[in-house]
Amino acid sequence: MRVHQVIGAICGCLVGVSAFGQATLPAFYSGPWVGAGVTLPTGWTSYKLGPDYSTNYDGEGGPAAKFDTTGDWLKINFNGTPSTISYWVRGNSLSGAYIFKVQESANGSTWSDVVVYNTANPIPNNAPAQYTNSLLANSRYVQFIYTTKATGNVGLDGVHVKGPDVPSITFNPPGTTNAPVSNEFTMAVTITPSGSGLKSWSMTPTYSGAASLSAGTFRFTPAAADQNKTFTLSVVASNAIGSVTNTAQIKVTPYTPPVPVITFSPPPPYEIMATTTQKIGIGVTPAGSGIQSWSLQPAYTGSATLTSTNFTFIPAEADGPSNYTFKVVATNIYGATTAETSIAVTAYVPAPPPSAYVCSFEDGTKTGYASGDVTLSNKTWNLTGILIGTSGDDLKIGSRSARLKYVEGEVQSMTILTPVMANGIGTISLWYGPYGTHGSTAPTLAIEIAESLDSNWISVGEVNAGAVETLTYFSADVYVSSPIYVRIRAVGGTKDRSANFDNIAITPYTPPAKTPYEAFLLKYNVTPGDPGTEPGDDYDGDGFTNQQEFEADTNPYDPAIHP
């Protein structure tokens, strides 16, 4: 009997069977997975896997397994305490709202997720990648399951379930550390893997102060008699495999007065747009310490206040772009401490007028890159090669932004399906930046307009998301007085690299303000911008430039009239 095959079931309800026996840890297998004469190792079972891929991901054994249908799974039942599972995985044209899970179970019926792969945590399409996940000590089953297929398949290879190793003990801070007399010294003691624990601890030579090790933290308050001595902390940890001992050196130094320690909350970095508000909480320890003074440099036009331990900075429009240094001095009976941090203020960007169309993506959902129509701020857009990102790697204003992926030779774009405004548009603006770690490889985006969806598209501006690090503002002047379609398109970059953009604002058409020189030309029925209308030209050929005619207010269209 081949354990990877599904056995016929009573009434057609049985969807898979378990292999006889249990795998012994460590358990490793690297194919083949499906085919004539293939028998999976003891404890390994599969369901509905497609024919093996022709490629090998890990360099061992046979080719990779193919998960090509919703519900495909590979299951391992083992007989010992696990520590980790490692595997090689790759997407094959994987896109859309797919879900691929690694799960664990103590009994084979109740499962919990170890890791979930989807668009927010994608499996790489370009090359196999190896991942390692920790397992619970009571787990006896692990399964890989293609929960939801959208587009594409998942390849899996080189699966390795490891049993526990002997314990590992680490200290933080590491190496020889100093502990001043009468000051409490703390050290984190970490014991791994899961299932390991503290067996005993000791410190030599004999000490006069107080010492304890509990809940992963060692505490030592040396007494005066301990000064200038070096102590050895010995920690013994054990698990089912065995025991191990590790040591750390602690040198007791002379008494050091506990001067203040200053912390900022939330922690830096800080970046705000001019006219918006930055609030910072200031923590000062130990008890008895307090803030003596503070400053914000260089000079600013807005307001900055410190009330109790709460700092508030509201820069004026004139304060950006610039970097400011916020400095705090705290004191107690033992001395003073200074801490400082930087606050970046970006240039002020005025809010769009009430008549503008604003697409913030907050009311839309799209989890895959496949082409689809989405209603955003009451207008329908086609998103091709674009999803609406919500992950921590997506640069965004609010909770959502567009994530556009560049694919050479394909039109990856966001296109409105009806004219934005019946009377034309004035400007188009947006915020843009690189997705996640794509950095300098993020694509270049073009803002384009057209009279119809089938006509030639005209670029009115381009932005390079790979040239910035944070969301950056861009505005393009359009000033077209007829109904216009708009799209945002990837026009260059590195394959499968992505950019974010957000808060698209499209203002209605208004005639642009005219300069005095333009008003002068129009006064004499001369259209600004026509050939011969530049200030240095002589439009009527009378020997006087248009600028000279402007200064004299003489007709630039009539050669008989001149300065």
What can you see in these coordinates?
- The chain has about 575 residues and is mainly beta.
- The chain folds into 5 domains: about 10-160, Jelly Rolls, CATH 2.60.120; about 170-255, Immunoglobulins (Immunoglobulin-like); about 260-345, Immunoglobulin-like, CATH 2.60.40; about 365-510, Galactose-binding domain-like (Jelly Rolls, Sandwich); about 515-550, no CATH class.
- Helix content is about 5%, strand content about 45%.
- The protein is built from 2 helices and 38 strands.
- It has helices spanning about 515-525, 545-550, and strands at about 25-30, 45, 65, 75, 85-95, 100-105, 110-115, 130-135, 140-150, 150-160, 170, 175-180, 185-190, 195-205, 210-215, 215-220, 230-240, 245-255, 260-265, 270-275, 280-285, 290-295, 305, 310-315, 320-330, 335-345, 355-360, 370-375, 380-385, 385-390, 400-405, 415, 425-435, 445-450, 460-465, 470-480, 485-490, 500-510.
- The strands form 8 sheets. Strands 27, 30, 31, 33, 36 and 38 form a 6-stranded antiparallel sheet that branches. The chain has a 6-stranded antiparallel sheet with strand order 28-29-32-37-34-35, with no helix packed on it. Strands 1, 3, 5, 8 and 10 form a 5-stranded antiparallel sheet that branches.
- A hairpin with a 6-residue loop joins β6 and β7.
- It starts with about 25 loop residues before the first strand and ends in an 11-residue tail after the last helix.
- Residues about 1-20 have low confidence and may be disordered.
